[in-house]
Specification:
With 179 residues, the chain is of the alpha/beta class. The protein contains three helices and ten strands, in the order ββαβαβββαββββ. It has a single domain, classed as Rossmann fold. The strands form two sheets. It has a six-stranded mixed β-sheet with strand order 5-4-3-6-7-8, sandwiched between helices. Strands 1-2-10-9 form a four-stranded antiparallel β-sheet. The longest helix has 18 residues. The mean pLDDT is 90.
């Protein structure tokens, strides 16, 4: 099995790039159907979602816009349960259909924070599109509208996801051998 070392940890191949891109196409197809006539604003959560957003956007056929925010709730391999806003929103959301584009939803703290903020800014509709979803870690009951893949609770790296800012450039997803 293919393995890589990122900083002090070993990771083994978990999900190949081809499978990821097939799942992204499925999400794009659903968004293209659901968002017809709505001119949605895709709000990409940096840094992790940049590769997912890039691939997703290439597959969208509907009129839409994109913007970026930077939020953080992780330190190393653990969530801090505190969401920090590092780069904020610079668009009016009044009456807009917003799709949050996230790399991974695990506990759901970051999304809860973001959804509440977008509703306070009077978005007409807020939906979530995530590359990966960890249903066993999820602590809330709000809907995850578009999920490319459900995964187990492994710590993963690659395809935009990092371990202490390293490993984002890997084209496949790897899971920690000894988290």
């Amino acid at each position: 099995m293919k393995t890589v070392k990122v900083l002090d940890k070993e990771f083994s191949l978990y999900i190949p790039q081809e499978k990821i891109e097939t799942a992204i196409q499925t999400v794009a197809d659903q968004l293209n159907k659901d968002m017809v006539g709505k001119n949605p604003l895709f709000l990409v959560v940096l840094n992790g979602a940049f590769m997912f957003a890039s691939e997703l956007f290439k597959r969208l056929t509907i009129p839409c816009e994109i913007s970026f925010v930077k939020l953080s709730s992780y330190a190393g391999t653990e969530t801090t349960n505190v969401v920090r806003e590092l780069i904020g929103l610079d668009h009016s959301l009044e009456g807009r259909h917003v799709v949050i584009v996230e790399d991974i939803v695990d506990t759901g703290h970051t999304m809860k924070y973001t959804i509440e903020k977008l509703h306070r800014l009077n978005a007409a509709d807020v939906r979530i599109a995530t590359l990966f979803f960890k249903p066993k870690s999820f602590q809330y009951d709000y809907p995850i509208n578009y999920k490319a893949m459900d995964i187990s609770n492994e710590f993963i790296v690659g395809y935009g996801l990092d371990y202490d800012q390293q490993g984002r450039n890997l084209p496949d997803i790897y899971k920690a051998v000894n988290p």
